[in-house]
Structure prediction request, 254 residues.
Amino acid sequence: MGEMGQLQRREQMGAEREARADLAAAFRLAVRMGLHEGVCNHFTLRLPGSDERFLLNRFGLHWSELSASNLLVLDAQGRLLEGEGEFEKTAFHIHSRIHLACAQARCVLHTHMPYATALALLEGGRLEMAGQNALRFYGDVAYYDEYHGLVLDPEEGDRIARALGEKRCLFLASHGVIVVGPSVAEAFDLLYYLERACQAQVLAMSTGKALRKVAEQVARDTQQLLLEDNPKYAGAHFAALKRILDREEPGYAR
Prediction:
């Protein structure tokens, strides 16, 4: 291998280490924020330079145990390329199909986080454009209103991917939510604010009073402003959260 090839290889390895550390950080942060559930749910990230290889959490580990080194690498056919242990079939069938079908989905986060899932349990449950946190999702949320049980085949994964389409958020009826993004930072920022928006809505609905909806033009304009600055703010948010982990849980990056 020539000098240029060695340099490219070192850069590739560095990018993969960073990708692993970022995804491991997302798992640890989800625990701190109460976005996880048992040893279930799953986060994935396409490896740099690849459309068909992605990182996935190993089955049986609590998210507080996940680290950069114990993440698995799978391909789109479900072959385990790196790492040891099992992976959930539902995780593979959901995430692999979204990664293949949706260009915006470099990072795919699936949770049963409580407030967002509460809306997914309601007949006709929708995220309403009533609060400022909700406005960042204006026109960017899809709904899969049929529940077919556990996702145990690629066909159901394809239906979920089609329901998501080009949007960044998907509510799965009677199940949970999925968010996607071009980076771990942007996807995690989206997940965080989705749960905050849903929490505010559920609390407001619990009063029994009507929600005060934001005018459509105002909602559209606000969403555009938030979208323009999203990479900057999401990056700053995630970097700040990682600094907390660096001080208190540095093992995530090992």
Notes: Residues 48 and 112 are 27 Å apart (CA to CA). Strands lie at 42-46, 53-56, 72-75, 80-82, 107-111, 141-144, 169-172, 176-181. The chain has seven helices and eight strands. Helices lie at 3-32, 89-101, 114-120, 132-135, 154-164, 184-205, 216-248.
